[in-house]
Structures are given as C-alpha cells and as structure tokens.
From TrEMBL:
Native species: Phytophthora nicotianae (Potato buckeye rot agent)
Name of the protein in question: Uncharacterized protein
Region annotation Disordered: where it falls in the sequence: 61-105
Bias-annotated ranges (Basic and acidic residues): 82-105
Length: 105
C-alpha cells in the first residue's frame, strides 16, 4: 500500500482550505462551489458529533523532544583580540560623506 505525502498542519482553517481545493476544479461554477462546500460542512459535522459522542477518538499526538540548549562560554573566559585595543581602529561611516536626499516633494 502506497501512501501519498500530504502537507499536514495544525491549523484547522488551512486543513479545510486544502480539502476544499482538493475537491474543486479550477474556476468552478457557483452551484459546484456551494454543493462542494455543503458536502464538506456535513462531513465536518458528522466527524465532530462522532468525537463528542465518543464513537471516534481524536488522533493522539506523539510527544516531541526539544534539542538541548547550546553551552555558551562565560563572559570571563572570553579574551579580547589585539585589534580591539588599537587606537587606529575606528568605525568609518561611509554614508556620512554622501549627500542627503530630501524626501519632500
């Protein structure tokens, strides 16, 4: 048995939109659109009532594991580079010499 890959989402609206697009052809007539919308709405009502009545159970979600936090060095362990103490090292603003454009029109 082959399963097709389906993009899954936790957002019910995105899921409904995906199912609606799957059920319709491009540029449906108003009658086709409303008929398909009614069918999908009835399916959702039946599914919801089955879950409420206990006939069907909602899908169980597997737990997830968060990755371990990276270990950062202490601030006292960080050494300054030699270039940070140079008196010649200064930040040059290249835009300081350029003309300023007026936004007034």
């Amino acid at each position: 048995m082959r399963r097709h890959i389906v993009n899954r989402t936790n957002n019910p609206l995105e899921r409904f939109h995906r199912e609606l697009n799957k059920s319709l052809r491009p540029h449906p007539t108003m009658k086709q659109f409303l008929t398909t919308l009614g069918i999908l709405a009835r399916e959702y009502v039946v599914q919801r009532n089955a879950v409420i009545a206990g006939v069907a159970v909602p899908p169980s979600r597997s737990g997830f594991v968060l990755p371990k936090a990276p270990r950062l060095p202490n601030v006292t362990d960080i050494e300054d580079s030699a270039s940070s103490h140079d008196s010649d090292s200064r930040v040059v603003d290249e835009e300081a010499d350029s003309e300023r454009y007026s936004t007034d029109m």
